[in-house]
Amino acid sequence: QVQLVESGGGLVQAGGSLRLSCAASGRTFSRYNIGWFRQAPGKEREFVAAITSSGTSTSYADSVKGRFTISRDNAKNTVYLQMNSLKAEDTAVYYCAASPYFYYTEKSPTYYNAWGQGTQVTVSS
């Protein structure tokens, strides 16, 4: 099974940028589809973006489309989330998650069976 650790969160001004990283253990990282989710206090966990194991297909929530970019470097066992034009509404704990399944229902949290501990992103207005 894969183990995930997020990093790169912090405090940023509205309109600024951050790049989150999701580092994975093991030799089979390239076999997993990866998703990013976020959760603000008192709210449900929300899908943000996902990428297939090959890195050739991506998907995004409407709220971040055009601002966020997901990518991966399988040689480094790492997935990235580049976040540009950040808004106060983007403030949340961001989690990466891994799925071993061939099918692609990437927007559902139940699709994933491994999660990182999360990294805090705070956007000041």
Sheet bearing the most strands, described? Answer: 7 strands, mixed
* Cα gyration radius (Å): 13 Å
Query: What separation lies between the terminal Cα atoms?
Result: 40 Å
Q: What are the segments in which pLDDT stays under 50 over at least 5 consecutive residues?
A: none
Query: Which range best describes the helical content: under 10%, 10-25%, 25-40%, 40-55%, 55-70% or over 70%?
Result: under 10%
Number of strands: 11
Class from secondary-structure proportions: mainly beta
> In one word, what is the shape?
globular
Q: What is the average of the pLDDT values?
A: 96
* Strand/helix succession: EEEEEEEEEEE
Please count the helical segments: 0
> Could you tell me the strand content as a percent range?
over 45%
How would you characterize this protein structure?
The chain is mostly beta strands and 125 residues long. It has strands spanning 4-7, 10-13, 18-24, 33-39, 46-51, 58-60, 68-73, 78-83, 92-99, 114-115, 119-124. The strands form two sheets. Strands 2, 4, 5, 6, 9, 10 and 11 form a seven-stranded mixed beta sheet that branches. A four-stranded antiparallel beta sheet has the order 1-3-8-7, with no helix packed on it. A hairpin with a 6-residue loop joins strand 4 and strand 5 (46-51). The termini are far apart. 33% of the residues are buried.
